[in-house]
Amino acid sequence: MSSSRKVIELFYDVVSPYSWLAFEVLCRYRNVWNIELKFHPAFLGGVMQGSGNRPPAMVPNKGEYLVKDLTRLASYMNVPLCQPSNTFEVMFEKGSLAAMRFITAVVENAKDGDRLVENVSREVWKRIWSTDQDICEPSSLSEAGLKAGLSSSEVEELIRQAKSQPVKDKLKQTTQEALDYKAFGFPLIICHVDGKPEVFFGSDRFELMAYCIGEKWLGPQPDKLTSYL
């Protein structure tokens, strides 16, 4: 392992299950790869529109494949991910704008680095992709915030800020930053190597990512592997 810390940025939206997989794996590799992991909550809908892309699930054969793929990956990566009862409604009718504004408000108020952002993001992901709960209503986001360790007063203030223009603008700005990296979907992972950004899309590029940053890929559960070495 090299001594200098490498910066890795993750652009994500909680509506994306593949982003959750990438998020959990990168969190596990924080110390294994000696990286500084930076979270950038953004709006996937804005990236899809800005890049001219369309959701893969809109193609029936792709949608059927993705369900099977996510089931296998959830087991392989040890992430408690399962399909919502109505995936189309969750992803395309309800969406994630309110949730991403809430997480953006957390980013803007975080005092302990990204740990709180990590915890809140994970709790919101769990609601949509593990326990099949709403992520649109303020009461649902409040519950996620409380489970992540926020106080009732902090949650109330974040819910208020999530509706403010500065937070809305910040989310738009972060989404545009992803588009500036030529994003066409999430997760978008940026590895800064020798002053140059290496851009990766998806949750299946970790082996190549490790090669590019001069580290070793030990699988999606590095702690489990190293405990046997």
TrEMBL record:
Family stated for the protein in its record: Belongs to the GST superfamily. Kappa family.
Protein's name in the database: Glutathione S-transferase kappa
First-tier enzyme category under EC: transferase
SUPFAM superfamilies: Thioredoxin-like
Keywords: Transferase
Single GO biological process annotation from the record: glutathione metabolic process
GO molecular function terms noted in the UniProt entry: glutathione peroxidase activity; glutathione transferase activity
EC number(s) given by UniProt: 2.5.1.18
Catalyzed reaction equations: RX + glutathione = an S-substituted glutathione + a halide anion + H(+)
GO cellular component: mitochondrion; peroxisome
Superkingdom of the organism of origin: Eukaryota
Domain DSBA-like thioredoxin: 7-212
Enzyme active site: 16 (nucleophile)
